[in-house]
């Protein structure tokens, strides 16, 4: 049923669509040939967590994968588990005595890929409803929402809550035929598309906020798309160097080559 819905669209509509997820909850449909933003769909922020710092009990989540860091004694340390992993293992207790409790909610978003309009949702709580049957205008995108609570059993006032949303748990494998490599900025919504074969910048756009994930929407569903996060100054230097390469024919920027061949 799901395959019939997803594969019912002309390949020309889906195969050229790049989906960009930003930290503030937007899904943006972009024509990956031109960089034109075709539509924007607002969902809840990818990450919701406390903004205040609690001494000895402050955790900083990574919005890209839900990884966790702890701020202790002025130092940032990466923990060996992520929010999704802790939710999967909950209820649990770690060696340092912290208690973890969590829950996961999976939904299918029914979206019009031409307009970026959410037609509806399908989740376990709607078990009596059949799969969406609007085959000619809709595609389905899976979304998982992880809610996690951390508690100090010796001090009930020390509690930390976070919600992390992920679209990747239902993804298909990376498509090796995709022609571009993407770079994004660490501090804003700048996205750069580089044609690896020709060594030129195809387009550069601003999606409004920090990018946390990228996907290609094809006739068989969502495909994960890798990208490289660099500093804002580095991204700007990329553009300058590539423009120089296009004009003079001088070799590709050394910093670019060092990144793509790591």
**What is the arithmetic mean of pLDDT?**
80
- Domain count, please report it: 2
Strand content: over 45%
Number of helices: 5
Question: Can you give the helix content as a percent range?
Answer: 10-25%
Q: Which overall shape is indicated by the principal axes computed on the Cα atoms? A: globular
What's the alpha carbon Rg, rounded to whole Å? 21 Å
How far is the N terminus from the C terminus? 41 Å
Order of helices and strands: HHEEEEEEEHEEEEEEEEEEEHH
List low-confidence stretches. Answer: 1-13
Q: Biggest sheet, open or closed, and with what strands and sense? A: 6 strands, antiparallel
Protein name: PQQ_3 domain-containing protein
InterPro entries: PQQ_b-propeller_rpt (IPR018391), Quinoprotein_ADH-like_sf (IPR011047), WD40/YVTN_repeat-like_dom_sf (IPR015943)
Give the SSE layout.
Layout: H1 2-6, H2 11-14, E1 17-22, E2 26-31, E3 37-42, E4 47-48, E5 58-61, E6 67-72, E7 75-82, H3 83-89, E8 92-93, E9 99-112, E10 117-123, E11 139-152, E12 155-166, E13 180-185, E14 190-195, E15 200-206, E16 211-218, E17 221-224, E18 227-230, H4 232-248, H5 254-260
Parallel strand pairs: 13-18
Antiparallel strand pairs: 1-2, 1-16, 2-3, 4-12, 5-6, 6-7, 8-9, 9-10, 9-11, 11-12, 13-14, 14-15, 16-17
Describe the structure.
Mean pLDDT is 80; it is low at 1-13. This protein is α+β, with helices and mostly antiparallel strands and 262 residues long. The strands form 4 sheets. Strands 4, 8, 9, 10, 11 and 12 form a 6-stranded antiparallel β-sheet that branches. It starts with a helix and ends with a helix. Helix content is 15%, strand content 47%. The protein folds into 2 domains: 49-167, no CATH class; 180-211 and 226-260, no CATH class. It has 5 helices and 18 strands. Strand 14 and strand 15 (200-206) form a beta hairpin. The chain is globular. This is PQQ_3 domain-containing protein. InterPro entries: PQQ_b-propeller_rpt, Quinoprotein_ADH-like_sf, WD40/YVTN_repeat-like_dom_sf.
